[in-house]
Amino acid sequence: MINHNSTLSPQSLARIANLQLVARRVVEGFITGLHQSPYHGFSVEFAEHRPYLPGDPIRHIDWKVYARTDRYVLKRFQEETNLKSYILLDTSASMGFTSSDFTKLQYGVHLAAALSYLMIEQRDAVGLALFDDSLRRLLPPKSVRSYLNLILTELGSAEPSGKTGVGSALHRVAERMKRRGLVILISDLLDEPETIISGLKHFRWDGHEVIVMQVLDPLEMSFAFPRDARFRDLETDETIITQPWHLRQAYQREMNRFLDELKSGCRENGVDYALFDTHRAYDFALIEYLNKRKKLF
Fold this sequence. Notes:
CATH class of the largest domain: Alpha Beta
Largest sheet: 6 strands, mixed
Helix content: 25-40%
Structural class: alpha/beta
Order of helices and strands: HEHEEHEEHHEHEHEEHEH
Shape: elongated
């Protein structure tokens, strides 16, 4: 069990505090604190201009007015909205695998904690869903700072158990989301690709922005076990004894085919995909990913 007080170290917080999670498509605003909704005529109407003051965000300056008058003024709107987001964390038994001291679930917990911190710091609402083949826990999105403690407590008590059922769990969460927002899936995705893509399509059909963070141990990708090994299925408890080097090439081909199918399915459905290696520090990996996303805007 991870102590939630140590989930976010001061060093990690310092690295991520100035980052903003930028959604690839505009969902219901920009994730920079308070957001102007892009759905003009739906929930937000232009209200008035006001003079620009030092410290105001320059993205709200009306440059057309500046071109005519040589004065800086800001657009004001009748209503501003915050992003609503869900972090979906796979807690199935397969997430308990590790070839070092850090399981995939622990890695996912740290990613989820860092993202939750980022979004609440930006005054965005964040919720949490824990699942295996069923939806085990669902915390609705909230943006108050005190809510982070509840999220971290849930993450800290997460243990790997149950069978994998990514697709069915995604459909269950999608059915409960009433407002368009951001969905971040953290999982090893060791399930049938077509069922996973079906669940992701459900979110996209409902207008949600979706990010998939696949977490794998390096040995799951390389199968570079050095000697005869006994393999135990963490979900069914089945065991087999084999010589890994005889299977390595065939295994790697199948793993590459599996990953390519997932990546292709995500790309075709407008889902952002990223692969995380558990042997790489989660904070540096997350910062690199977020910086790449920022460059898209």
